[in-house]
Queue: 4 jobs
Job 1
Amino acid sequence: MLTARPASGTYVPYFLNYISRVPEGAEPLDLLRQQPAELRALIGNLSEEQALTSYAPGKWTIKQMLLHMIDTERIFAYRALRIARGDQQPLPGFDENAYAEESGADGRTLADLFEEYDAVRQASLTLFRSFSPDMLDRSGTASNNPLTVRALLFVLPGHEAHHMHILRERYLPLLG
């Protein structure tokens, strides 16, 4: 059964950038299952030195971007869990640049980062599969904005698709 797209107003407008990357008629859980192979095909065979590439001064390295994707998925899954369980406490935002700076990603191996990525992805898949249709439509507040579990289900694969696009367009051309 196809998961209905989130309605406008059930997420901050900024998230439309991610939600729109989930093709019409696509099942977001299927995309979450497919993306690990796509990401590995894209950057899994880079050398450790290549994975330290940044496309411009002050921009993240490939390793930092990968860990940003992991951190963001963890945070969004946590938000989904809290909202699905009926928690109405406003959830704080996070500073992605401060997280990347403090992550230590560049000192880790790609293999280690992918091991963490796989664990987080499996946990996200298990969590989102557990949600009933009613839970998907529960709403909470994150970063001072309304947000539903359904919106988060679409944001997760859309966020990753966004970053894979950036990898293809800005990083990989520098590596030949």
Job 2
Amino acid sequence: MTKTVLIAEDSSVIQNLAKKILQFQNFEILSAKNGQAVLELLNDNTIDVILMDINMPIMDGMECAREIRHLSNPEKANVPIIAISGNAKGYTMHDFKEVGFNEYLPKPLNFDSVVELVKKYTNR
């Protein structure tokens, strides 16, 4: 069964690169440019893992992760979330864990690490 990855990233370049690389690994890809769109997509789809930028317009990654963890549907509330950020604004791994991120990947993204983590969280 195909696993679905939601890429939440306001940079089209990063979004398109991640999309191509993960599609090559046979993942289904959904994408969003802000946290509000992430919540809408999560509500309407079954998503296996989320790659989420910290700095996005409308609703940033930290707030969005917090919202996801408070959803009433336990399956959606527990979806694995991987933080991605070029400038983590002084956040520590503890800060990411506290709002509900499972992992953190710094930018520039190492796409081998992206694929490895996505596979880890989708059991592939």
Job 3
Amino acid sequence: MTTSLPTSAPDDHTRCAWCANVPEFLPYHDREWGFPVADDVRLFEKLSLEAFQSGLSWRTILNKREAFRQAFDHFDFHKVARYGEAEVTRLLADAGIVRHRGKIEAVIHNAARAVEMQQAHGSLAAYFWRHEPTPEQLATQLPQPLTASQIEASVKLSKDLKRLGWKFVGPTTVFAFMQAMGLVNDHARDCVTRAAVAQARQAFVVPR
């Protein structure tokens, strides 16, 4: 999400401009986007959905999110890692999701990498939260919210994920993941949700 100016939603509260005039974005923006996440399945789901979004709009993916969850065993990566050609064929026939073989196979491939990551680091959360940028780094790399498509931390995380064998994890995709999962509070300064996210981040216990 890169639109910088805040905007007033139908309830007259100021929010990030990307959720303007899209009713289904409001609950996602107000209750999910930017709030810190330590659940491994949710982290894997979001990175997978960001991969599917490549070349598409988030509105398309969000509207299909429940169908994706049903199709991919609710993104239980231990189950997805065991998918074979039969599951790929099933997914390619599922009109409820984005039927792109390369992206489907990448999610299955990444599920196996997620299992490896969990074994190596104890949890996906422990690995990903190691890449949280410091306030000092954000002050120079992201002086104004919602003005960048990537930052140094997302470039570094992208490179490390690729080194570990993950696919569809470019720095822009990874930054969108970091924004959504709360590693960065990128709500607009005047956004009604920014303070709630800041409070949630302050209370959040970073996984180790």
Job 4
Amino acid sequence: MAGALPVGDPAPADGALPGDLVVDPSTDLGVYLHVPFCRVRCGYCDFNTYTSGELRGARQDEYADTVLREVALARGVLDAAGGLRPARTVFFGGGTPTLLPAGDLARMLDGVRDAFGLADDAEVTVEANPDTVDGAVADELARAGVTRMSVGMQSAVPHVLAALDRTHSPANVRTAVEAGRRAGLDVSVDLIYGAPGESLDDWRASLDAALALEPDHLSAYALIIEDGTKLARQIRRGEVPAPDDDLQADMYEAADAALAAAGYDWYEVSNWSRGAQRRSRHNLAYWRGTDWWGFGPGAHSHVAGLRWWNVKHPAAYAQRLAAGESPAAGRERPDEASRRLERVLLESRIREGLAIASLPDDRRQAVAGLIADGLVEPADALSGRVVLTLRGRLLADAVVRALTD
């Protein structure tokens, strides 16, 4: 289970937005649907997820109906604030969304469609464990309106999967990808690099295996050790080594080179796609700071600068909604300085980059030094945007510090 929720202001029981909040209905709206169930907890994961023995008062077979109660509440809240509009993206994340029957995911999507409407070109993504997807599941998701499937491959090397506590069969990755493709879905695969005991050759083998699947999109994330996880405890006890920063940098460079050679373009530090039309529009909405409503226990939302987050446990979440109350545990309205910092953190990570004009005057002068250090593309800077070089992507935190400190 994830760590503590943020500390914020109390959220009203009816979920109403502040009366002085100005919601712009022309801003894109995304919907995130959190499915918090997993068969096994991976040792590195600190997401808000629960195995069957941890549910204590919540039931998977009732989950879709519970989420639909929050969807109905959200429709009323946004309608009252003048912010009701069709969703441009929908993302089922987790956890393992495909642990639920495909019919439950379809009902949840139908609920979103009925409450908000879906844009004509809406992107609808489902994260999938390779062991839980076959042709019948992919076909049912496609008929429901899903357009994209993200398969959690993580690695093609058995000892690396074991180090991550991943239990899926590597062979089932191809089965899931092919099932999604036959159903007409765009397919993404997710990889993680830097696991204990993973060599550069291991990582190259995983990259080769992923590229052999010819996905439309690929994500490659450096393993981060989160406090409170099994892996953090193992490292603290000296049972496994901590990730090696230099090796992870070599792995990132290997990924970028292999993906570029295969025709994939980077569009965010950890994400590559075959052309701009295959980018994850839902994730880009987060990085660009548009509006989204997160449904489910522990889910976070953002509308017009207001942020809020739901209670964490599925039982508490269900109890709030059964009582006709919002599941929001707290909320906040970041001040201008916080929003400016966040904008630099997020927009500097994407290929379109950060507008130099959005920086305070005393920070714009830092861009020249970043160019000299090989961290920012000179041609893009001349056009008024901070765009990271390959070296800049490896040292993105240093770029953010230079632009904000």
